[in-house]
Amino acid sequence: MALAMVLREEIPVPEGVEVTIDKEIRVKGPKGELKRKFKQGNVTIKQEDSMVVLETRFPKKKDKAMLGTIKAHISNMIHGLTEGFTYRMKIVYAHFPMTVKSAKEKVTIENFLGERYPRTAKVVGTAQVKVQGDEVIITGVNKEDVGQTMANLEQATKIKGRDPRVFQDGIYLVAKE
Q1: Chain centroid offset of residue 120 CA
Q2: Which H helix or E strand runs over 79?
């Protein structure tokens, strides 16, 4: 039984995307720039031709997990800067017509379940929120910012103190693109 001495993962870098590896990883693409620091431990990150190469020597279970995590983060950065991320949410109400307004830093939800005071959800980072009729569209280049903004909207319309099987009002995720 032979042990793998070196575990290696390669991430292809498409044309139009530039990756710089210093103390942090910078990715420049057609839609902007993202940068991120990794506390990689036993994982080395380097660039060969049009590939980002991740390697770990004599990998333990945590090293393999870290390698996969770093690969996923860098792949998401490249994907976000070439195509971007779009999450579509649907505004659902049965009892009281809800009004959703988008500003730069927050989204305001008025008349949720007939409440007098508006609820707010924070827009994280560079994510952008558009309200079109009964649909909320969240777009951005950073997957974490877009996902956290979506989660903030869902949490802002969480029903407390009532039966959620009867009161199904809220803003719910419909599609990720």
Answers
A1: 20
A2: helix 61-82
Which of 57, 82, 107 lies at the terminal end of a domain, its last residue?
Answer: 82
Residue type, 29: G
DSSP state of 38: -
Q: Which residue has the tokens 């379940």?
A: 113
Residues of the chain with pLDDT under 50: 1
How far apart (Å, rounded) are the C-alpha atoms in residues 88 and 108?
Answer: 17
- List the CATH number of the domain containing 146: 3.90.930.12
Among candidate residues 44, 42, 73, the one with its CA nearest the CA of residue 60: 42
Q: How far is Cα 168 from Cα 22, in angstroms, rounded to an integer? A: 49
C-beta separation of 93 from 110 below 8 A: no
Query: What is the model's pTM?
Result: 0.87
Q: What is the pLDDT of residue 4?
A: 55
